[in-house]
Design brief:
Largest sheet: 7 strands, mixed
Shape: globular
Bound molecules: pyridoxal-5'-phosphate
CATH architecture of the largest domain: 3-Layer(aba) Sandwich
CATH topology of the largest domain: Aspartate Aminotransferase, domain 2
Strand order of the largest sheet: 4-12-11-10-7-5-6
Oligomer: single chain
Number of strands: 17
Radius of gyration: 21 Å
Distance between the termini: 41 Å
Amino acid sequence: MSSAIVPVYARADVAFERGEGVWLTATTGERYLDFGAGIAVNALGHAHPHLVAALTEQAGKLWHTSNLFQIPEGERLARRLANATFADLVFFANSGAEANEAAVKMARKRHAVDGHPERYRILTFEGAFHGRTLAMIAAGGQAKYLDGFGPKVDGFDQIPVTDIGAVEAAIGPGTAAIMIEPIQGEGGVRTIPAPFLRGLRQLCDARGLLLIYDEVQTGVGRTGKLFAYEHSGAVPDIMSIAKGIGGGFPMGACLATADAARGLTVGVHGTTFGGNPLAMAVGNAVLDEVLAEGFIERVARLGAFARQRLAELKDRHPDVVEEVRGEGLMIGLRVKLSPADFAAAARRRHLLTIPAGDNVVRLMPPLIISEGEFAEGVRRLDQACADIEAASPLVRKGAFA
Ligand SMILES: *Cc1c(COP(=O)(O)O)cnc(C)c1O
């Protein structure tokens, strides 16, 4: 029977009915090793006992009251996020795109309340991905997401990444902020060099701009730091997070310094669902685990282990794997065939991976994965590479290089 869902997704022909840790069980009973984690969402894997307990306990008490009332669990989560980061204040949303919308509105409003409403333009970067709302497809600037949706929302200027001269040249009297992913996710796990991020910080300070980091994908331990900005030491004024913070429960947040958030006063911005008791209970439970002694350090160690195993994989399959990149457990394999075809080959070996841009396949397992489980994933990648080599003499000869 045909699907009644709007067909905007190219779904693989598999459905899962349960999960445990890094493993998923399909409706057919087959087990899959999950190196995608729902696109870097299931930070603690599937059915983590602490998250299940937090959600079910909250579900039995109270689901939703709206932001017309106090939400103590939200106060607690905001305070914990602020204590763990550069931020003073947190706005809760329901998704990454919404967190980014809050970030952009916050930056624009800050300049407006300072008497500069003309400063509303945001500099963004080629290869960026910030979500699918009308403003965020303009921020991302990719033709394939903008095409057919009418006039591009005004106020976003795109520049090449890692060219600080181009950034400086693009700053005008109307510029409010610079917005960047410290590691581009959808763009293909492209790490933005730390000196470039520090250059952006200096430019923002010198020109009175706000620096916005989109850490929707890189945040919450994924890169071996609580947030990726810690790798560079170039601290943002505003930061959006989402994916990992809910561990699978839909939520997002926009973190900011008190100064950057100055324009967001009563009635200026809001959401019905954002920060509701269910989301806040789960967010706090995620932080219980991620902030626990040694958790992040373990992710960093595993990341180093993973990179080494994958470098060996690349050496064994030079006609399939071209490059290993990334940070922590946000890993990209640049492959010599379509990333979707590679992901399909891995899936036939019961390993889930996520295609991205720049010919990259992402490996982003739950952060709780063990070394043994990662090694099992590499074994399956080996098999998938062998399958690809066997199926295509062209690949074997390197003709796709
Ligand atoms: C996934 C993602 C988004 C969009 O998040 P949604 O929850 O899909 O709206 C924005 N920015 C980055 C960097 C992302 O990876």
